[in-house]
Amino acid sequence: MRIKIPTKDSLGVVTAFYLTSKAFAHLGGKHDEIDFEFLGNKGGPYTLQTNVFASDEGGREQRHSLWFDPTIDFHTYGILWNQHQIVFYVDETPIRIFKNKSNKGVSFPSNQMHVTVSIWNGEPWASNGKKIDWKQAPFLAQFQMFNIHGCQSHNPRKYDCYSPHLWWNGMKYWELNPQQQREYEDVRRIHLLYDYCSDRGQLHKECQIR
User: Fold this and answer.
1) Rounded CA gap, 36 and 19, in Å?
2) Closest CA to 174 of 82, 88, 96
3) For the chain, what is the largest distance between any 2 Cα atoms, rounded to a whole number of angstroms?
4) How far apart are CA 132 and CA 162, in angstroms?
5) For 24, phi and psi rounded to 5 degrees?
6) In this structure, are residues 86 and 109 in contact, taking their beta carbons and an 8 Å threshold?
7) Which sign, positive or negative, has the C-alpha torsion 57, 172, 74, 112?
8) Is 0.85 topped by the overall pTM?
9) Among 60, 57, 9, which Cα is nearest to 37's?
10) How many CB atoms lie within 10 A of CB 189?
């Protein structure tokens, strides 16, 4: 998905692109979700927040400073999701990895999802307690060139979606390659602002597993 976020003073305005599932009855109404959330600001710098929900267990926020102005031009934001890992990409650079550790008791998204985009009022948490300046409205977010490769949601045989014949399940997508790993480590070192594992890691088993 290519996205350009509002250009005006948009402090408190959140632009979002995410995958979300229905709340399935057999899971007690719980849902899965994989989020990109752009936090508006007064001219930058701009912060990108990502989150992962599995069986309604969220609170896995990471925040990164973007190394460009996302209001000036479109940039590409992508998600790789297979049974091994979830990878968040910005312009093909991996910025976050969430490994499947379900065999160690960590919840991992596994339900069919649909794509949602939105723009919404994120005060006070997205604005450090400040109010949105509604005189700047309307706030316009632009989305283009959405493309998806995925297993069809109505497929009655869920495990067909794990087939190695689907390109995203190939071994090369089970982990980052060396170049991607270097890029990922550079982003964490330079642009990572907040990681839930450093703040509330005791509440999430995946933060305690290496």
Assistant:
1) 9
2) 82
3) 53
4) 44
5) -75, 135
6) yes
7) negative
8) yes
9) 60
10) 8
Which of 33, 92, 183, 185 is labelled catalytic?
Answer: 33
Contact 24, 158 (CB under 8 A): no
pLDDT tens for each residue of 57-73: 999 999 999 999 999 99
Reply yes or no: is the peptide bond before residue 6 cis, omega within 30 of 0.
no
37 is catalytic: yes
Q: Which two tokens stand for residue 137?
A: 């409205």
Provide the β-strand partners of residue 36: 17, 50
The region that residue 36 occupies, defined by phi over 0 for left and psi between -120 and 50 for alpha, beta otherwise, is beta
Express each pLDDT in 160-203 by its tens digit.
888 989 999 999 999 999 999 999 999 999 999 999 999 987 88
Gap between the Cα atoms of 49 and 64, Å rounded: 6
Q: How many residues does the chain have?
A: 210
Q: Are 52 and 58 in contact (CB under 8 A)?
A: yes
Burial 21-33, CB ≥16 within 10 A → b, else e: beeeeeeeebbbb
CA distance 16 to 4: 11
CATH number for domain 2-201, candidates 3.40.50.300, 2.60.120.40, 3.90.550.10, 2.60.120.200: 2.60.120.200
Residue 33 appears among annotated catalytic residues: yes
